[in-house]
Write a sequence for this structure.
């Protein structure tokens, strides 16, 4: 018993040490997300509603690209644990080519959606704001995807600090850009929501330029860099990466679809509810960023243990990550309960939006445990590189069960915005239990 407790304590320390820089980076993204919503929300309710629609639609695209890059992490982690740095470089070259092609496919889909955006039933008066903002966010997809490839490689090599600092600096640039371009301070043009989009695009271009510069100049990455520049892409490596990456990407797409389609549903109710949805989604990311950060660290350590073929350590690390994530879920829930009203009023002065948000606090607290469970065990499963079950679990939980439940709670049962938020608990808990089941299956000792 003492030995097990000592091992768990060691796992906790490793997860926190690896996860802390990711948490800081994610917290930085939360701050800039807050700043975006606060600045746009205080500029106007129509701007906030428009940003809500576009950001939620693009959540699927962003997470599709991000999830595709997640397939790199367990493969790099397994190679890193064996000291195979040259093979990491070869893997990265193939990953860059594959991720660029995949992102271009996503961009094509989003372009098709743009030309049909008028048919999605959103308030007509928001269209002049939605369309130009949509284009700017679309332009940021490719630089974000390139950044993700280098960041996930760094995470797999246990280097979580460097991407963290880049994210923090780019987020600071975004906030300053928002201040100048939304309101027109210090002689800058007053561009409102369009200014927020320009600032976001510039910060994304900065982040990829920065991480690429560090990778090309740092001695730490010399062996990996040389292998990346000198090797060629191979069908076998591209196929292996695609097989690992696509299920993770689609898993995140299906999960995000539950929220993105919900945003479209909310737009059918009204622009006040749509603005409230954006505010509460921004606040809700407080919990998710911590779960995701610890999950990423858990995934890396599970992948390292998988490289050593230590099945017992893989399972123990998965549950160590879950213990820490549950603590985070409790903390997030307490913040929502006791500081929710304070946070809401920072985002918007509109009394109607504030009242709509207050009604959603309880259902948002209800799904924190489900969210924490699905994030942790999805990442733990990702670390095993046995990712195919993630695809059908996400499809079944979020689309087959989740979307009909959202419509049922929101419209058939006349729950409105509150009913839509309660529906998220169903899909998140279902996914969490299924991810847990398959993680236990793939870490069963023979």
């Amino acid at each position: 018993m003492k030995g097990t407790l000592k091992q768990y304590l060691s796992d906790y320390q490793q997860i926190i040490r690896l996860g802390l820089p990711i948490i800081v980076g994610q917290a930085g993204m939360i701050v800039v997300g807050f700043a975006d919503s606060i600045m746009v929300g205080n500029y106007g309710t129509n701007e906030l509603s428009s940003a809500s629609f576009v950001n939620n639609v693009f959540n699927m695209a962003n997470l599709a690209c991000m999830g595709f890059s997640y397939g790199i992490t367990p493969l790099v982690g397994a190679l890193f644990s064996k000291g195979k740095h040259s093979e990491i470089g070869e893997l990265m070259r193939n990953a860059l080519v594959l991720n660029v092609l995949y992102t271009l496919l996503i961009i094509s889909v989003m372009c098709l959606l743009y030309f049909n955006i008028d048919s999605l039933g959103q308030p007509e008066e928001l269209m002049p704001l939605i369309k130009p903002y949509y284009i700017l966010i679309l332009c940021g997809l490719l630089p974000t995807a390139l950044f993700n490839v280098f960041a996930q490689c760094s995470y797999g090599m246990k280097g979580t600090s460097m991407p963290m600092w880049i994210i923090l600096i780019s987020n600071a640039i975004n906030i300053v850009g928002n201040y100048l371009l939304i309101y027109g301070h210090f002689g800058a043009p007053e561009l409102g929501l369009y200014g927020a989009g320009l600032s976001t695009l510039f910060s994304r271009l900065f982040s990829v330029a920065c991480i690429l510069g560090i990778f090309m100049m740092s001695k730490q990455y010399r062996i990996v860099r040389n292998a990346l520049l000198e090797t060629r892409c191979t069908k076998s490596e591209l196929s292996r990466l695609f097989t690992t990456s696509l299920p993770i990407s689609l898993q995140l797409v299906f999960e995000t679809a539950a929220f993105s389609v919900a945003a479209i549903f909310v737009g059918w109710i009204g622009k006040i509810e749509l603005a409230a949805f954006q505010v509460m989604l921004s606040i809700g990311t407080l919990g998710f960023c911590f779960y995701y950060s610890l999950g990423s660290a858990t995934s890396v350590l599970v992948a390292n243990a998988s490289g050593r073929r230590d099945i017992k350590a893989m399972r123990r690390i998965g549950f160590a990550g879950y213990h820490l994530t549950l603590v985070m879920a409790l903390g997030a829930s307490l913040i929502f309960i006791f500081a929710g009203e304070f946070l809401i009023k920072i985002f918007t002065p509109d009394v109607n939006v504030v009242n709509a948000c207050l009604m959603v606090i309880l259902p948002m607290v209800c799904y924190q445990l489900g969210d924490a469970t699905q994030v942790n065990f999805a990442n733990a499963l990702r670390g095993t590189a046995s990712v195919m079950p993630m695809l059908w679990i996400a499809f079944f939980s979020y689309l087959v069960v989740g979307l009909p439940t959202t419509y049922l709670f929101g419209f058939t049962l006349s729950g409105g915005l509150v009913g839509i938020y309660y529906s998220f608990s169903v899909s998140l808990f279902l996914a969490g239990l299924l991810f847990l089941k398959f993680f236990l299956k793939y870490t069963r000792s023979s």
Q: What stands out?
A: The radius of gyration is 21 Å.
